């Protein structure tokens, strides 16, 4: 009698252990799916090429919502010192004006993908129940974006910066 009870007890323990191992393996296998979805979303629109004119950029993104003359003019390399998110294409160019364009699109999602991967790893994949639908939803929605471009006296783009449009 004790032998049968011991065998039953061992079988129950093994069954529980196999369930726990199965749940662990499934959660580990599915961890990272949301991060991959975030990485597969379209990144920021095509880069602004060096020498692009304001007219060419306006054709792609529409007319600027704001355009300013810079007084005094400054070197393009000085722009990156104040804000490292500014992409400088010509360090020696003299910036004389700026234009801000507003449009809908998606910004680079590496930070979102990294955060989703970290969250998934730290919860052994359990956060994927929330993160996968969130990633799919965010993939379908365009954000309001702003593109600021700094131009030379000849009207060529010297630097640019992408960012989300902040509503007032």
Overview of this structure, please?
Helix content is 46%, strand content 24%. It is built from 6 helices and 5 strands, in the order αααβαββααββ. It has a 5-stranded antiparallel sheet. Strand 4 and strand 5 form a beta hairpin.
Cα-based radius of gyration, to the nearest Å: 26 Å
Separation of the first and last Cα atoms: 77 Å
Largest sheet: 5 strands, antiparallel
Strand content: 15-25%
Enumerate the strands of the largest sheet in spatial order, edge to edge or round the barrel: 1-3-4-5-2
Order of helices and strands: HHHEHEEHHEE
Instruction: Give the % helix.
Output: 40-55%
Number of domains: 1
Low-confidence region ranges: none
Given the structure, what is the number of helices?
6
Which structural class do the helices and strands define? Answer: alpha+beta
Can you give the mean pLDDT? 79
Shape: rod-shaped
Number of strands: 5
Structural features:
alpha+beta; 5 strands; 46% helix; 24% strand
């Amino acid at each position: 009698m004790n032998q049968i009870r011991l065998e039953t007890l061992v079988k129950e323990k093994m069954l529980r252990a196999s369930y726990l191992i199965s749940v662990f393996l499934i959660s580990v296998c599915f961890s990272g799916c949301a991060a991959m979805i975030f990485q597969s979303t379209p990144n920021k629109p095509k880069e602004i090429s060096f020498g692009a004119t304001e007219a060419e950029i306006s054709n792609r993104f529409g007319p600027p919502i704001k355009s300013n003359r810079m007084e005094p003019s400054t070197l393009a390399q000085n722009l990156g010192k104040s804000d490292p998110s500014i992409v400088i294409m010509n360090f020696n160019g003299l910036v004389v004006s700026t234009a801000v364009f507003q449009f809908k699109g998606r910004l680079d999602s590496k930070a979102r993908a990294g955060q989703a991967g970290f969250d998934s790893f730290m919860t052994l994949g359990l956060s994927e129940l929330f993160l996968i639908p969130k990633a799919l939803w965010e993939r379908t929605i365009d954000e309001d974006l702003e593109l600021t471009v700094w131009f030379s006296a000849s009207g060529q783009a010297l630097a640019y910066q992408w960012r989300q449009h902040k509503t007032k």
